[in-house]
Design a protein that fits this description.
4 strands; single chain; binds zinc ion; flat; alpha+beta
């Protein structure tokens, strides 16, 4: 199934990940839409880091830490678009100095 992933990810990275928060949508290995999370770091009952795994094939599909999903798990095209979106947000958020 990796061949499918490598092919589809080049054109449709958002088929596998949600554009808004980078959360997993489909497993890149078996296309399952069912995931479970494993707590990796918990401090004072507060979840800091969690690994997301596929319910069907147990592949690691995403990593969540301190409120954000890791862009490193995205395919190259998705990473590039995510970076652009972040740059745009930073640009729009800037207060012009006068
Ligand atoms: Zn899977």
């Amino acid at each position: 199934m990796k061949a499918v992933y490598n092919f589809v990810c080049k054109v449709k990275p958002w088929w596998f990940f949600n554009k808004e928060d980078l959360s997993p949508k489909r497993c890149p290995d078996c296309l399952s839409k069912s995931f479970y999370s494993v707590a990796k770091d918990v401090s004072d009952y507060l979840l800091l880091e969690a690994e997301y795994r596929c319910n069907c094939c147990d592949s690691v599909v995403q990593y969540w830490s301190y409120g954000n999903f890791d862009p490193a798990y995205l395919p190259p095209k998705g990473r590039e678009e995510h970076r652009q979106r972040q740059n745009e947000m930073i640009t729009f958020g800037e207060v012009p100095h006068d």
